[in-house]
Amino acid sequence: SHSIEIWIIFLYFCFIFNLASCQIRYSIPEEMKKGSLIGNVAQDLGLDLKRLRSGRARILTGESPQYADLKTDKGILVVNERMDREQLCGDVTPCSLSFELILENPIELHRVTLEILDINDHTPSFKNKNLNLEISESATLGTPFDLESAEDPDVGHNSLQNYVLTANEHFVLKQQSNMDGSIFAEMILQKPLDREMNPHLSLKLIAVDGGTPQKSGTVHIEITVLDANDNAPVFNQSVYRATLIENAPIGTYITTVNASDADAGPYGMVTYYFSNLKGGLADLFNIDVASGKISVTGKIDFEKDRKYELRVAAKDQGGLNNGSKLIIDVMDVNDNAPVINVMSFSSPVSEDALTGTTIAVINVKDSDSEKNGKITCSIDSKLPFKIQSSLTNYYNLLSDVVFDRETTSEYNITITATDSGSPPLSSATTLRLVISDVNDNAPIFTRKSYSAHVVENNEPGVSIFTVSARDVDWNQNARVSYLLEDTQVSGSPASTHVSINSETGVLYAARSFDYEQIKALQLVVKAQDGGSPPLSSNVSVKILIQDQNDNAPQVLYPVQTGGSLVAEMVPRSADVGYLVTKVVAVDVDSGQNAWLSYKLQKATDRALFEVGLQNGEIRTIRQVTDKDAVKQRLTVIVEDNGQPSRSATVIVNVAVADSFPEVLSEFTDFTHDKEYNDNLTFYLVLALAVVSFLFITCLVVIISVKIYRWRQSRILYHSSLPVIPYYPPRYSDTLGTGTLQHVYNYEVCRTTDSRKSDCKVGNAGSQNVLIMDPSSTGTMQRIQSEKSILDEPDSPLELPIPLNAMERRTEPQRRIQAGARPRHARFETRLVV
Ligand SMILES: *[C@@H]1O[C@H](CO)[C@@H](O)[C@H](O)[C@H]1NC(C)=O
Ligand SMILES: *[C@@H]1O[C@H](CO)[C@@H](O)[C@H](O)[C@H]1NC(C)=O
Ligand SMILES: *[C@@H]1O[C@H](CO)[C@@H](O)[C@H](O)[C@H]1NC(C)=O
Ligand SMILES: *[C@@H]1O[C@H](CO)[C@@H](O)[C@H](O)[C@H]1NC(C)=O
Ligand SMILES: *[C@@H]1O[C@H](CO)[C@@H](O)[C@H](O)[C@H]1NC(C)=O
């Protein structure tokens, strides 16, 4: 706004020397309006208005435009043209404008100088409205940044006086003067920039002048903070944790690490990698460079590593990096079966080992942990063993039974170790336990007792029979040898009868057996094993000797003598069926071999007599007549039933007569037979001599035998003397069967009290027996010696005589003693000639 101000007009003096020239000076502010009064020239020059008019006063400006105009009518100088001091003078001060006022008539020349005073008509101004700066955030403190200078054409006070920067914490303004006095401003960084916090700053720089009113100009400073790689990537967690199942397949995702970089662009582009990775781990894990995803690339084994600690690093493109930690806990999977180690194992074990003996010590390991590694050990419950845990992971296998090698000689013990995982894994090992033998079993014979048969008259050395014993022990303990126990058989050691092969158990006859002497052998065979100590067992062996038909029947009655004549008497009055006599024969054999049958072989008169086939009874089969000869001679043959059969013949003389004399005369005829008589005398003498000799011999023999026996109290009775067996039932009517009863086969009739009572048959009443026996004395003595043997109290052959047999035998005697005359009472008449 241009307010017109009247400045003081300086009236300068006129040059005295030149009356016509005076100099005046006016100061006026610039930019006055046209027509504005500059000064009263007339007055100041002391000219009146007429002079002006007359002098045609005017202003001379030369070439320059006429800024002032002279109003001659008023004598004032007014602004003719806008005067812009800045235009006229620029920076020059003071700014003055001179022109001449010329008057004619007389010429008068006056210089008028206009001093144009500055007014604040300009604001400071910047060339650009905006100032764009790019400053790196890494710029160092104190760095100056030039700012644009503002222009204010005004001068002096009105010119640019000051700069002001909007308040901010990063920059301070510093103003400096140029040589020409103008000022300019610069910003000094006083606080580091952080692109990440303030990527842009907007500031205003204001330039102010000193005028009144003050004027100002503004420029906007737009600061773009340039990125510097001042931020390292930062992981969002200082430690990452992940769990991973062992044996996870390749490619299994584990976790993702995440680092962010506050920087922009490449400086903010994060790549991931493992740092400080130990050798093996590089094969196990992979990290995705861009995404930070971590996955499995190898075999994860809990048993090798339960925990992995990995350093992860993130790097930006500017090379800054930072690290973090990844802890991977591996979770156990039951992937390991228990491993069984047999630490010690004793086999074989003796079968007498005590219950609870430790058989084996085993160690079981499972590399898995916790439940997966918790092991239970077991064995087949049927096996007689138990398993006990001793120390950790150690187990004892104990026997739970008393072993018996004979029932079970070995055990396959399968030990199973199972862990507690799910599913559980198990492993097994088999121990083969061998039970060693102890001699705890005696040999056992295949049978409780044995009986064998051997036919008499065997060859010595013939094998009879085999005993066999088994020993369930092993090897030497089962090696059976057979022994004959030292028992007595018939008064002599068993070994004299049989022998045994100690290895094979074959029994051999040591001699030839005679059934008639020994019917059975009772032996004890011992089987003994080879153990130490040896065990043994006994078995009784009964060897039955079987009869052979080796004995011919022996005729007991009628007694056969060489020269004596015995005749049965048959009264002529005898009826049909009259029992003349009975041929009594025995066979020392037994059974069929002793089953005798009687037949008439030859007879004087076949029609008169018959012989009972079974019982040997000779009976008449028709009425005896007077015509029948007194002398009757019957030849009876006795046969046994053996194969082949043996036989004996006996000649029975029968006298058919009513009286003794008759018989005698008849038989005297026999004896006084001429040639018979001649010989008889000779025979009698000879017989006498023989008998005497025999008697003496017998006496000597008997005495020697007595002495011998006295010394050897136990000796088998061997009789070389004729034994007169007695067979009671056969001569008794009451037993009419004619069959020899077995029990009597063994019976030998021996007279101990009276030889008369034995074997002599006579009919007290109606039957007389005539015996002519030249050797009767010998017979008597033989019987006596036999008696003496039999009298010996410990004679082994003192066989019991059944009571009924005894009774039968003595019955006739009693009857005789009682004087009764039963039909079958017998007595003996012995006629010795
Ligand atoms: C990393 O974490 C930040 C914040 O924690 C998130 O914004 C960004 O998406 C994450 N990056 C990845 C790859 O997950
Ligand atoms: C870190 O980043 C990962 C991946 O993006 C994310 O899963 C995780 O939650 C983040 N952790 C934190 C503490 O933000
Ligand atoms: C990594 O980052 C942490 C904080 O996130 C910081 O304290 C540490 O100094 C950084 N390390 C490096 C090497 O930059
Ligand atoms: C034990 O095992 C062995 C070999 O496998 C076999 O020969 C034997 O017969 C088995 N014994 C038992 C009692 O099963
Ligand atoms: C075997 O017999 C003998 C005598 O006969 C006897 O001493 C022994 O005790 C018996 N042994 C056994 C085992 O029966």
From TrEMBL:
It comes from the Eukaryota. The chain crosses the membrane at residues 680-705. Residues 70-126, 127-235, 236-340, 341-445, 446-555, 570-667 form the Cadherin domain. Coiled coil: none annotated. Residues 1-22 form the signal peptide. Keywords: Calcium, Cell adhesion, Glycoprotein, Membrane, Repeat, Signal, Transmembrane, Transmembrane helix. InterPro entries: Cadherin-like_dom, Cadherin-like_sf, Cadherin_C, Cadherin_CS, Cadherin_N, Protocadherin/Cadherin-CA. It comes from Gadus morhua (Atlantic cod). One of its GO terms (biological process) is homophilic cell adhesion via plasma membrane adhesion molecules. This is Cadherin domain-containing protein. Pfam families: Cadherin (PF00028), Cadherin_2 (PF08266), Cadherin_C_2 (PF16492). It is a single-pass membrane protein. One of its GO terms (molecular function) is calcium ion binding. It is found in: Membrane.
